[in-house]
Amino acid sequence: MTVLPPFPEHLAEQTDFLTDHERRQLWEVAVLMADSRGLLVRLTALFSRQVESLQNAVIQAGERIGGQAWSGLVQKAQDTVEDVLWNSYVYATFGLEAMPRFTRSKKPRKNLMHRLATTASGAATGFAGFPGVFVDIPFTTATILRSIAEVARDSGEDLSSEETRRACLEVLAFGSPNESGEQTETGYWAARLGVSHLTINLLIRSAAGQFGLVLSEKLMAQMVPVAGAVTGGLLNYSFTDYYQGMAKVHFCLRALERRTGDAAAVKLSFEALVQAARERRRIGRRRRPVAPVLLSAQ
Predict the structure, then answer these.
(1) Residue 270 domain flag
(2) How far apart (Å, rounded) are the C-alpha atoms in residues 78 and 214?
(3) Burial zone of 21 (CB within 10 Å; 0-12 exposed, 13-18 middle, 19+ buried)
(4) What's the total number of domains in the chain?
(5) Which domain holds residue 60?
(6) Other C-beta atoms within 10 Å of 4: how many?
(7) What is the pTM of this model?
(8) Other Cβ atoms within 10 Å of 256 Cβ, number
């Protein structure tokens, strides 16, 4: 279990419009945003470079599989995601209480289960190689959406409302696990502004375009049977973990904006806390102790 670092006291005055509990919640998601590029995401970036190299090798191998064919496969992945998003919100919320139960639990109860489910799906379909990707994508998309819905419910959202459905879909339009921390934060606010005025039809297309592009990495990563099982499972775990984290950020900010009625103040405070969290990481790296050197006896 990760221990939350101490709240930066120099920002206490800037966040004095929040209660102590709300201040802790905002600090928690700020640390989550700052740390969004974790180990699995760095490994995902490594796989992405390997996928790009494999893609270039395949393209150079002949005209039969070229850039146009690759673009067609990426589009097919996005179309698959769009079909799932149109039809899976009912599944994503099936069996979930529309409103949250107020318990002492600090996190949604099934987040780990969802990560394990998508990991198992990626590994299982990876044994089939390239064809297994289009079996895995619908399951992974629907499962991640359900996980997002649970985060929304546990953050005080009403799952039966159209606004909450929009907010769940918005999470899938927020950036990519391969972005740096600064890009993730910038992408979050830009995407949130960009989708705020869209109809549900255009929102689904936007989310499918962004999320489908992320999942299309699996097209080449799982091209080789058996070996694709390892990469497929790892990528799925990374994707699910990333979007769960973005959901926690998104719905925490929405809750604070509703409660305070001052979205601008919440945004400024969040940005300051994210910057403080990044500074904490830099200081931690500079202060990391150096392993002692053992000198052999002369």
Answers:
(1) no
(2) 9
(3) exposed
(4) 1
(5) 19-96+107-260
(6) 11
(7) 0.81
(8) 24
